[in-house]
Design a protein that fits this description.
Distance between the termini: 97 Å
Number of helices: 17
Shape: globular
Oligomer: single chain
Strand content: 5-15%
Helix content: 40-55%
Structural class: alpha/beta
Strand order of the largest sheet: 2-3-1-4-5
Radius of gyration: 29 Å
């Protein structure tokens, strides 16, 4: 083949590829979106912003699990990106929480691509993260900029202040944070100003209203849904997003729904905390064991007795709780001195917050139910915790801790402790 013919052929092939790419681009990004827009209207962006402890995890797990079902309604959950897990968008929400935002982070860059691709295809999207409720005004403004071209709806779940605070408290002192445990009364007194800001629904609502407008806001009454027996995922997916309304088999009754991370008892964790303090004092000596092999170090610190790092603190805590529960069932554990408390001093504050919310939004609140929230304030906002003074002054409990100490020492679970 003559060289001139080869060059012409290559030119024609290159031109064909270029024209096809250009035509495809025009069709995908201009013609099809225009057709979709005429048929479906402006694409929607459903943004569920939490806040924490209002069934956010359950909602995210539902949306992630049913992402394929949602696509049939032209509603896209970002499961095709590295955000495929239910909590995958949380880092993006955290990036927007800072007053100084780096818009080149992987999370922001990837979500920007997700928004742009779906906007170009005139596809509606749905995203969810409780971290959105923590976003700074600058972060909310950036989110608005990224969602330009979408008809945005912001979903906020309202939970009355007292039970919300209790739920946050239980969540905070799970796991390895037991060593810093504080009784509820101490925790509230020391942290009330901070908590009032963190749980201030107005700070969050105002930030999003200022950016997206009042008409974009949807406030859902958390306890109202519970009282009506309505699955919170149904409210988000069907009543707000307009998807899966014909799939009642996917939803469960509110009474059976894992709407929040269960509020578990902290009594075992408290006893563990007091026991840990006990071994640090009781196990201190000039002659100490430095490893499970019972080697003695005469120069060790007087306050060096601690659990060996063969297990994480959380693993040791779970084993401790299991053992305490077993002893309790066998009635060989001393009676636990408990203090039962109700946050009655916070009820007027919570009632005023509830009144202002209903005054502001009125009938626009989905499943608004004043009675259900007042009931939560007065009947559910209680807790019980260990009376630390009574526990540590109890002869029975000191003897129990001493026996437990020597048992842990015998099995090599303690390091840096008294060798005698």
């Amino acid at each position: 083949m003559p060289r001139s013919m080869l060059v012409l052929l290559l030119f024609l092939m290159f031109t064909f590829v270029l024209v096809r790419t250009f035509v495809s681009f025009i069709i995908d990004y201009f013609i099809l979106p225009l057709i979709y827009y005429q048929v479906l209207g402006k694409p929607r962006a459903i943004v569920h912003i939490g806040p924490p402890k209002t069934a956010s995890t359950y909602i995210q797990e539902f949306l992630s699990h049913h992402a394929r079902d949602l696509q049939k309604y032209n509603l896209i959950w970002p499961s095709t990106h590295h955000y495929g897990s239910p909590k995958g968008i949380s880092l993006f929400g955290m990036d927007l929480a800072n007053d100084s935002i780096d818009n080149t982070t992987t999370e922001i860059t990837d979500m920007r691509v997700f928004f742009e691709e779906n906007r170009a295809q005139n596809r509606s999207i749905i995203i969810s993260s409780e971290n959105f409720s923590k976003d700074s005004p600058i972060g909310v403004a950036m989110l608005k900029s990224m969602l330009r071209g979408f008809d945005v709806t912001i979903i906020y779940f309202y939970r009355e202040f007292v039970s919300h605070l209790l739920s946050v408290y239980y969540q905070l002192y799970r796991g390895d944070k037991i060593s810093k445990f504080e009784p509820l009364s101490t925790f509230v007194v020391k942290n009330f100003d901070v908590l009032a800001i963190q749980l201030d629904l107005w700070r969050t609502l105002r930030a999003y209203e200022d950016a997206f407008g009042n008409e974009a806001m949807v406030v859902v009454d958390y306890y109202g849904c519970e009282a009506a027996g309505v699955d919170v995922a149904y409210v988000v997916a069907c009543e707000v997003a307009g998807a899966l309304c014909d799939r009642n088999d996917l939803f469960i009754k509110s009474a059976d729904s894992p709407t929040t991370n269960a509020r578990e008892s902290l009594i075992g964790r408290e006893i563990f905390g007091y026991y840990e303090r006990f071994i640090r004092i009781y196990g201190s000596s000039r002659s100490v064991i430095t490893s499970p092999k019972h080697k003695v170090d005469h120069n060790a610190s007087l306050d060096s007795c601690h659990f060996c790092p063969t297990q994480t603190m959380n693993q040791r805590l779970k084993a401790f709780e299991k053992d305490v529960l077993k002893q309790r069932h066998r009635h060989i554990l001393p009676e636990i001195p408990l203090i039962r408390t109700h946050l009655s001093m916070l009820v007027p504050f919570a009632e005023e917050m509830d009144r202002k919310l209903r005054e502001e939004y009125g009938d626009e609140i989905l499943y608004g139910n004043t009675t259900a929230n007042l009931k939560a304030m007065h009947e559910e906002a209680y807790t019980e915790f260990v009376d630390g003074d009574a526990l540590m002054n109890s002869v029975e409990w000191r003897e129990w801790m001493t026996r437990t100490y020597y048992e842990d020492l015998k099995h090599g679970r303690l390091c840096g402790c008294n060798a005698e």
